[in-house]
Amino acid sequence: MVPPRSVVLAGGGTGGHIYPLLAFADCLRRHDPYVRITCLGTPHGLESEIIPPRGYDLRHVPAYQLPRSVNMNLLRTPDRMWRAAKVTGEILDEVAADAVVGFGGYVSVPAYLAAKRRRIPSVIHEVNVPPGVANRMGMKLTKHVAVGFPHQIAQVPALRNARVVGVPLRQSITTLDRPARRAAARSAFGMDPHRPTLFVFGASQGARSVNLAVAGAAKAITGAGIQVLHIIGARNDAFEVPRGLAAPYVTLKFLSEMEYGYAAADLVICRGGAITCAETAAVGVPAVYVPLPWGNGEQRRNALPIVNAGGGLLVEDAELTPRWIEQTAVPLALDNGRLMTMGVAAASYGRRDGDEALRRLLLEVLEQ
Predict the structure, then answer these.
(1) Given a cut of 50, is residue 72 above it in pLDDT?
(2) How many Å apart are CA 305 and CA 286, to the nearest integer?
(3) Which of 14, 54, 67, 160 could form a disulfide linkage to 73, CB 3.0–4.6 angstroms apart?
(4) What is the number of alpha carbons within 13 Å of residue 255 lying toward its C-beta?
(5) Do residue 103 and residue 162 come from a single domain?
(6) Which residue in 187, 214, 209, 213 sits closest to 198, CA to CA?
(7) Nearest-10 crossing angle of helices 274-283, 298-308
(8) How far apart are CA 198 and CA 250, in angstroms?
């Protein structure tokens, strides 16, 4: 198979689109240091903060929210989309794109449209159930669709012909040896290398209900001899750890090197975002998943297959109380045998080769 010389990657708005894009870009570059990689985004999206520091070319294109109801924006949508596709098409021409790979977000739509007009092959990578609105539109323009998890195909008829490739993850995650890194990771956070460790995190901004529940149970947790590593979120300045705890309780606003947190952890309490589920399963860390209580239930659907495989527990947001943590999470964090069994089950469901599997699909598409 002849590798591509120039690939355009489209995805933005949220970390769930951007981080797999970057992991895939790293994979392409590992195989070919000279491949030209061009990323598409918007000036105001999270991608503008994350992608350029990683050394990749980011081009800004117009992107418009796709309306979900009949209103004036719906009437303006076709004209907006074609104008955005025209700008995007000029970029595809400039970089002599061999292929477009889209990861979702509104910026992906003009990329799919521009690629279709130029007969440039495009591949869609989707991790959610139901698929995002941008990728649903893209599926009308290309038959090459990859998904992160088997349950997506089972639950979404439109994905019945998609290929399960897993989720592209950073090499620092996919190469993580948790047992070998455990003591060093704990020491790096100023924690006891030998104590059982609970790792708590929400989304990038934290999760207020999770924060409150764990803080409310802090005395019971540490009193049982368990130390806590807690990412409280960037906007949670008011969070306070109770005083007089019997074991270390370390708080951080943000942790970019999540592999250190996973290495330190015996048990995780987290949300059920697609990337979170992909990472926890890939590294084989037992987790208590607390899906967001709003939206379309996608976080529950993300976590449930791991739970059904034996790799974690699922508790609804309203049921995550200090008492639940004391009665359920604390005994689990102290049960080494059960944690080991759950870790093996999570790893058996997870995949560490999502980037390589997506690259193989891209090469097949180009060969066709």
Answers:
(1) no
(2) 13
(3) 67
(4) 24
(5) yes
(6) 214
(7) 20
(8) 10
- CATH of residue 152's domain is 3.40.50.2000
DSSP assignment of 175-243 equals T--HHHHHHHHHHHTT--TTS-EEEEE-BTTB-HHHHHHHHHTHHHHHHTT-EEEEE--TT-TT--PPS
The verdict on residue 326 lying in a domain is yes
229-263 pLDDT, tens per residue?
A: 999 987 766 778 888 999 999 999 989 899 999 99
Q: What's the Cα-to-Cα distance from 122 to each of 62, 102, 143, 205, 225, rounded to whole Å?
A: 19, 7, 9, 33, 52
Nearest Cα neighbor of 191 from 216, 226, 217 is: 226
**Do 232 and 194 sit in the same domain of this protein?**
yes
242 with 165, same domain?
no
Q: How confident is the model at residue 74 (pLDDT cuts 50, 70, 90)?
A: very low
**Total structural domains in the chain?**
2
SS3 254: coil
Tokens of residue 146, six digits = 């990859």
**Gap between the Cα atoms of 7 and 3, Å rounded:** 10
Q: What is the pLDDT of residue 314?
A: 98
- Quote the DSSP letter at residue 318: G
Predicted confidence at residue 116, as pLDDT, reads: 96
Using CA atoms in the order 37, 42, 46, 50, what is the torsion angle rounded to 10 degrees? 30
Is the residue at 1 inside a domain? no
CA distance 4 to 231: 40
